[in-house]
Amino acid sequence: MKGQVHTGRPSKLLRNLSSKIASIPMVLTAVVIFLGGTVWTVVYSFTNSKLLPRANFVGLDQYERLWDAPRWIMSIQNLAIYGVLTLIFSLVMGFLLAALMDQKIRFENTFRTIFLYPFALSFIVTGLVWQWILNPEFGVQSVVRSLGWETFAFDPLYNSDIVIYGVLIAGLWQGTGLVMCLLLAGLRGIDEDIWKASRVDGIPMWKTYLFIIIPMMRPVFITTLVIIASGIVKVYDLVVAQTSGGPGISSEVPAKYVYDYMFQAQNLGQGFAASTMMLVTVAIIIVPWAYLEFGGRKRV
């Protein structure tokens, strides 16, 4: 018996050996480049590095300077507004579109392609397109005024109080189609017998969606939320293409702040501190979710 146990262990270690060997470069890349780069960034955020990184540690000076900067505070406020509204509107509109598509409408493939097409465009192209659409000289405002409404005003990209909502419109236009397709795939995975049973029981359609279908689609919603959230945190090129952070600093976002300080202001220490705060923000959101999602399963 003892001999069998000892001979069994090597076989388990050698099982799928070729696959394990093939995965070594990927593991090393993840550990050395991604994890190592993250640790390196955090460490040098406590230095006064300028054009080049240097190990001259200054404690929390970079973080104090960061949170005293009106530009950083504005970027955090804009990211919060953009993030919350993007999550709400993209999920609501995406689910409504998916529910309509799930009714087996005519020309479904055509409509699905139309709604998903904006996602195929880069954020730079999307930003430039919506910059033209929202331009008061020849965009929506000009078209409506040419129809007779001379007092109509719609220039969000030139109004510092609402400019982030102009960026939000472009972001929703590009991303809602993807959300629709993800949720539509989830809806198509629902057993048809559930719909038949709800109709037999006389349950209204909206209650079926709200109390039966949506809870069953929890994994799909979680995947969609992760995809949306990753796009929110790193939003950069959409803002650059539409407003370049203006008017003034009214449409500033954290990713643009990091880029400007690292590559234009040549202040690596400040850029590292800002990127570390972005990492902390993501960790605050991801770690509790991961604990509840996977830790709870292990206990069960």
TrEMBL record:
Alphabetical UniProt keywords: Cell membrane, Membrane, Transmembrane, Transmembrane helix, Transport
Lipid bilayer topology: Multi-pass membrane protein
Domain ABC transmembrane type-1: from-to ranges: 76-291
Record-linked Pfam families: BPD_transp_1 (PF00528)
Transmembrane segments: 21-43, 79-101, 113-133, 162-187, 208-233, 272-292
Protein's cellular compartments: Cell membrane
Top-level taxon of the source organism: Bacteria
InterPro entries assigned to the protein according to its UniProt record, in alphabetical order: ABC_transporter_permease (IPR051393), MetI-like (IPR000515), MetI-like_sf (IPR035906)
Family named by the database record: Belongs to the binding-protein-dependent transport system permease family.
Protein name listed in UniProt: Sugar ABC transporter permease
Species for this entry: Shinella lacus
